[in-house]
Design the sequence.
């Protein structure tokens, strides 16, 4: 007599070695922190994004399959959070605050300059693949508005004049 | 909390008695007050997502300011004072709907929901009648969701009802809410057929036109232009209530018809999309002789009487006429045939294995130890054992109820935490994955596995032994089965299942006739009997034992037929020359018995008559074929798995020579007489007369219209034939009229097909006809339970003898789309059907050299000259080794000729449908799985 209990999930075929050992190790660590696998979904997406820059359809399927979650449900999670990227992004993601404090301090004018420098609007990636510009509601630094993040760095008291040099530093820093 | 206490609250200065423990919205609607809402659903509780049901609540008599509160999220408090009409509350609601409507395309004229749209109703009710927003709207891309459902995301108002129904209520996994705020999107992760067997309910759950009925769209008609009558689904043995709608002589669609004890608000996709056969061009329209020549109706009737009349003598004199009844025909058709050929010559038309199962099922139904639960009662079970049934594919609506039963653990936790049961999101958050036990014993994967607590997979014979052993574990008076579970460690599943069932306050055992396995039904009866003994016979209620019947009137047919009058016996009598003629009622015998036996019987018969609505292999061999009406073209009564008799009214007329079968075979002038024939002459049907409507409650005997007041085109629809408006068709057979004239049910549901109330054009108007939300329909008729309990309880059955043999054990694999004869001839269902397939375990596939999706030959084990058939190999990781499950589909496969054990050999892949539409959880994907 064979017995079993627990969930059986329909899913779609992918090579079983899609996720790297490093990714799996990190996901397994997260799994120990939550009582319910569904809660690991978001962390797993962040892990994959950290390694690959964004979450492709294949990555989404791989994570869903690995965790035994319905793909549709994980897609719901992935698309809910705007910092999970379901499309490729540039090397540097600019999170540009356009919330109320920054607005008072003239973020719209600065943002025009950003767009002019990089040739992109919100949601776009520059042609050279260096920058992606995304709006965020607040970065928690209102007393030094306007602010933005470029990659991991926070930039305060933004001035239209400084932007050109700021961006070229990032361009040159890349290896 | 299930609290029946009443408390007083004041709404806009009027004091009402309402249910304590409920919420304000539900109670306002129960009182018949108009309070707009979107996200709340009577069956799914409150989540407070849409903010549309805002009311003012006042702290005390002095408080004039009050606070704005969401009625659906606010518990009823004794003495509460609220206002719906407060100007601020009204303004708030108008503001909410204005923002919900910001990106709504306003495409009502081309939207299938128009005219029965909850969003239209609520927009008007909330007073948002002028659009101020003149900016660009958010637009979405729609997805292809399969042959049943259209997707038009732009109409969405993000109430979340779709995913709450589809995922949380029905257990679907391939629809989700994606993105956020303006861009919230409800769809699949990529285009493709919606996998849930209940996807059609999205059409009714969605308050607007995001999800619409694709089949209906193809020949669309507004709700008010449909001719509608209360009907009963003929798709399986459950008997869900439906409201079919007709226009221009075509059956256009089926929607749910509320029944508080049965289907509630939901039906399955077979029921909703499986009636296209009614409009099929192949329908039999005139009587035919054996050569296929058309006959005049009078001449055909005369021939039938001659064939039946030549019976004269009794069976055995080689002059008698055998009548073979039909589990898919109503009682009256069967009564009439039974009367025509005589009770002793009337036989059931289902297979012999099902015949044997039906004897046991009806026996158990009369046993005072057991209670055959309604769907509402099934939902209350707090531990369930399913024995050998893939319920989602055999009685889908019951599977949906079983899925709700596992939530009883969550509700219990909620009670403990003082969270009202209707606080849906909070209850789910609290319970997480906690579920009441659902134990499944089967020979392969079922579509309830995802919520099962315990599963035992084994061959049918081993399952039966395990199940007998389980009864023994529960009560040692029940006989033990040798060869039952041998596991003795602490994970012994039988011990765990026994513990679950014994610990439950309302355990439920589910089995059924679909497997044709009497041992499983006996085992189910033993288990229920053992539970009953352990629970004590004193005051405790009988144990819920749900034994499912396979077709709409299997039970009715059983109840009017002598136990020994099986189909096999009928075929034997014909072949042996003990009877001369045969009349087959709405039945393709080739689906029911070994083909060789049917061939021999029909060849031996001097004359054979087939009454049916579509041509099939049996009508092809008949000397006389009489066309009959489809379920929606006639009035008839059916008896469901519970023994509940229900009346299905005629929806529309058939203009061909087809008639209800009782008119061909009976000498009744009116339907009523055909029904009373059974009620008067068969004791168990005595209460059948109760299903006839109490016409005295209809004012002045005025009929109930099948058409709405707004029905259009009456004078124009036949103008191409004659510019003079024809006289409206009369219906002397029922309390309904084929026209707009009459008194529509506005306050009670005496005869209610299409619900409508002022300001409530959508199906949400049902609340206006309920005693209270989720309560019985006012004056409505829920059917009549025919079966009486005996005074004597039955005993335990002995376990089956261990009969090992060569080959693999064969069992049927049922599919919601394809296993039922008539629905599988509907175009929409055919788009979802698979080819005939054989589910085999990976190990058995390797052993027999079978490849996924390729051909396989099944032949009778140990009989080289026996029947052999081909099908597609379907390797499923959870099929029990040693067992194979054959899905016949619409291939002309001789299932019954194969016997209990088969051999498998690779064969050429059959042409036709593949396995592409198969939706299962355990299809072996790669060679690695095999």
Sequence:
């Amino acid at each position: 007599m064979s017995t079993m209990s627990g969930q059986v999930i329909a899913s779609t075929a992918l090579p079983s070695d899609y996720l790297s050992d490093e990714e799996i190790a990190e996901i397994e660590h997260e799994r120990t922190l939550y009582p319910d696998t569904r809660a690991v979904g978001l962390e797993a997406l962040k892990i994959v994004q950290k390694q690959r820059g964004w979450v492709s359809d294949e990555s989404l399927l791989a994570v869903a399959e690995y965790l035994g979650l319905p793909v549709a449900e994980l897609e719901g999670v992935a698309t809910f959070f705007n910092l999970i990227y379901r499309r490729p992004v540039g090397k540097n993601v600019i999170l540009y605050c356009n919330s109320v404090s920054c607005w008072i301090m003239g973020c719209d004018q600065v943002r025009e300059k950003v767009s002019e420098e990089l040739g992109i609007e919100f949601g776009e990636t520059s042609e050279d693949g260096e920058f992606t510009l995304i709006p965020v509601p607040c970065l928690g630094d209102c007393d030094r508005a306007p602010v933005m993040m470029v990659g991991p760095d926070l930039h305060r008291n933004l001035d239209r004049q400084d932007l050109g040099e700021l961006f070229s530093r990032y361009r040159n820093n890349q290896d | 909390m299930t609290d029946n206490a009443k408390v007083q609250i004041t709404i806009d200065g009027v004091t009402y008695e309402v249910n304590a423990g409920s919420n304000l919205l539900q109670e306002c609607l129960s009182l018949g007050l108009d309070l707009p809402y979107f996200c709340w659903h009577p069956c799914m509780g409150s989540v407070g997502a849409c903010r549309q049901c805002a009311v003012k609540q006042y702290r005390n008599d002095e408080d004039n300011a009050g606070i704005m509160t969401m009625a659906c999220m606010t518990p009823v408090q004794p003495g509460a004072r609220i206002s719906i009409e407060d100007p601020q509350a009204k303004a708030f609601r108008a503001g909410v709907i204005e923002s919900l409507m910001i990106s709504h395309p306003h495409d009502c004229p081309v939207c299938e929901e128009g005219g029965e749209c909850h969003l239209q109703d609520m927009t008007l009710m909330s007073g948002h009648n002028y659009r101020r927003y003149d900016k660009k709207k958010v637009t979405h891309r729609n997805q292809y969701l399969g042959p049943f459902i259209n997707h038009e995301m732009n109409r969405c108002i993000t109430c979340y009802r779709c995913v709450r129904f589809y995922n949380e209520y029905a257990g679907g996994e391939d629809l989700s809410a994606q993105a956020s705020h303006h861009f919230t999107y409800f769809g699949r992760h990529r285009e493709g057929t919606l996998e849930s067997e209940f996807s059609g309910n999205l059409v009714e759950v969605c308050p607007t036109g995001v999800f619409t009925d694709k089949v209906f769209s193809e020949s669309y008609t507004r709700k008010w232009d449909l001719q509608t009558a209360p009907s009963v689904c003929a798709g399986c043995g459950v008997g869900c209530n439906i409201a079919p709608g007709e226009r221009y002589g075509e059956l256009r669609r089926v929607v749910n018809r509320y029944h508080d004890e049965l289907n509630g608000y939901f039906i399955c996709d077979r029921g909703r999309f499986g009636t296209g056969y009614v409009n099929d061009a192949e329908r039999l329209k005139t009587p035919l002789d054996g050569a296929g020549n058309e006959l005049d109706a009078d001449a055909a009737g005369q021939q039938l009487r001659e064939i039946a009349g030549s019976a004269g003598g009794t069976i055995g004199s080689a002059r008698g006429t055998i009548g073979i009844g039909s589990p898919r025909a109503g009682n009256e058709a069967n009564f009439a045939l039974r009367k025509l050929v005589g009770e002793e010559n009337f036989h059931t038309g289902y297979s012999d294995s099902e015949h044997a199962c039906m004897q046991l099922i009806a026996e158990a139904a009369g046993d005072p130890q057991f209670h055959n639960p309604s769907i509402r009662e099934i939902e209350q079970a707090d531990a369930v054992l399913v024995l050998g049934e893939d319920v989602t594919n055999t009685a889908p609506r019951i599977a949906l109820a079983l899925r709700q039963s596992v939530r009883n653990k969550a509700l219990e936790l909620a009670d403990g935490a003082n969270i009202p049961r209707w606080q849906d999101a909070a209850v789910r958050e609290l319970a997480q994955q906690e579920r009441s036990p659902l134990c499944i014993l089967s020979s392969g994967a079922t579509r309830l596995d995802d919520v099962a607590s315990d599963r035992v997979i084994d061959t049918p014979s081993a399952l039966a032994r395990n199940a007998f052993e389980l009864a023994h574990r529960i009560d040692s008076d029940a006989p033990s089965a040798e060869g039952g579970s041998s596991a003795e460690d602490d994970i012994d599943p039988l011990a765990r299942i026994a513990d679950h069932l014994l610990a439950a306050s309302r355990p439920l055992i589910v089995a059924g006739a679909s497997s044709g396995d009497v041992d499983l039904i006996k085992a189910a009866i033993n288990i229920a009997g053992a539970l009953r003994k352990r629970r004590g016979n004193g005051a405790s209620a009988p144990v819920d034992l749900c034994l499912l019947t396979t077709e709409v009137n299997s039970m009715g047919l059983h109840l009017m037929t002598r136990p020994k009058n099986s189909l096999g016996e009928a075929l034997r009598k014909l072949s042996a020359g003990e009877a001369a003629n045969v009349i087959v009622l709405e039945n393709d015998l080739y689906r029911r018995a070994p083909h060789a036996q049917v061939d021999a019987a029909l060849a031996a018969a001097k004359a054979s008559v087939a009454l049916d609505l579509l041509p099939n292999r049996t009508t092809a061999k008949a000397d006389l074929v009489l066309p009959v009406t489809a379920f929606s073209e006639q009035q008839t009564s059916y008896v469901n798995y519970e023994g509940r008799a229900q009346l299905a009214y005629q929806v529309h007329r058939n203009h061909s020579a087809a008639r209800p079968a009782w008119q061909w075979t009976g000498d009744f002038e009116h339907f009523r007489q055909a029904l009373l024939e059974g009620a008067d002459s068969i004791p168990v049907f005595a209460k059948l007369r109760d299903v006839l409507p109490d016409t005295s409650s209809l004012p002045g005997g005025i009929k109930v219209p099948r058409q709405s007041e707004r029905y259009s085109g009456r004078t124009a629809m036949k103008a191409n034939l004659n510019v003079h408006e024809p006289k409206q068709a009369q219906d002397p057979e029922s309390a309904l009229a084929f026209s707009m004239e009459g008194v529509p049910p506005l306050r009670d549901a005496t005869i209610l097909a299409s619900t409508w109330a002022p300001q409530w054009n959508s199906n949400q108007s049902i609340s206006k006809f309920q005693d209270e939300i989720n309560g019985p329909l006012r004056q409505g008729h829920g059917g009549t339970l025919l079966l009486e309990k005996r005074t004597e309880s039955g005993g335990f059955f002995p376990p089956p003898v261990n009969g090992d043999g060569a080959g693999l054990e064969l069992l049927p694999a049922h599919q919601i789309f394809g296993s039922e004869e008539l629905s599988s001839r509907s175009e929409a269902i055919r788009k979802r059907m698979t080819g005939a397939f054989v589910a085999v375990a990976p190990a058995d596939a390797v052993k027999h050299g079978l490849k996924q999706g390729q051909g396989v030959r099944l032949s009778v084990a140990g009989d080289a000259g026996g029947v052999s058939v081909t099908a597609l190999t379907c390797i499923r990781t959870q099929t029990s080794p040693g067992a194979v499950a054959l899905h016949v589909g619409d291939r002309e496969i001789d299932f019954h000729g194969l016997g209990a054990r088969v051999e498998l050999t690779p064969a050429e892949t059959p042409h036709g449908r593949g396995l592409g539409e198969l939706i299962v959880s355990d299809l072996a994907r790669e060679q690695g799985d095999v």
Notes: The first strand of chain B starts at residue 6 and ends at 11. Residues 518-535 of chain B form the longest helix (18 residues).
